[in-house]
Specification:
alpha/beta, 29% strand
């Protein structure tokens, strides 16, 4: 497993990191679904990073937090990007009821999952896992990213 840490000083740098990662994500398991886990406390920038990933893939529209809808769906090139937020999930059975496995097995899909720890028992292993934390820096907008993958990824 490849693992490394990066930091960002602000929202702009977090979006930029997402854009850079997007190119590598598209190369994971070509012809198969891709799964990205985003973990971290409330307000650490999971949706902001998702916005950068989608922008890097060419999406030009508004990227919303899927907290209330559970999933937002975006069309990017040949892919469907499913942006999930499991924060409100009390039991993984709820995800089975919405057909989570159909989303995750779509061969032309990229699933970005915020709060995956709420459903670890039913989720496959991710292609990319990112833990986002507040940095120890005095800058309240600074973030630390711990990025892990079984694929070759390049630290920036």
């Amino acid at each position: 497993m490849n693992s490394f840490q990066l930091t960002s000083e602000n929202e702009f740098e977090t979006i930029s990191l997402g854009k850079k990662l997007s190119n590598q994500i598209l190369e994971f398991n070509i012809g198969n679904p891709k799964i990205i886990f985003l973990s971290g406390e409330l307000g650490t920038g999971k949706t902001t990073l998702s916005k950068g990933i989608l922008e890097g893939m060419g999406y030009e529209g508004l990227v919303k937090s899927p907290t209330f809808n559970l999933v937002e769906i975006y069309k990017v090139s040949d892919y469907s990007v499913f942006h999930f937020d499991f924060f409100r999930i009390a039991h993984s059975k709820e995800l089975n009821e919405i057909g989570i496995h159909e989303y995750l097995t779509d061969k032309k899909s990229i699933s970005i999952i915020e709060w995956p720890e709420r459903a670890n028992s039913i989720l496959p292993k991710p292609d990319l896992g990112i833990l986002i934390e507040h940095s120890d820096d005095l800058n309240e907008d600074a973030r630390k990213f711990t990025i892990s993958s079984n694929h070759d990824i390049t630290p920036y």
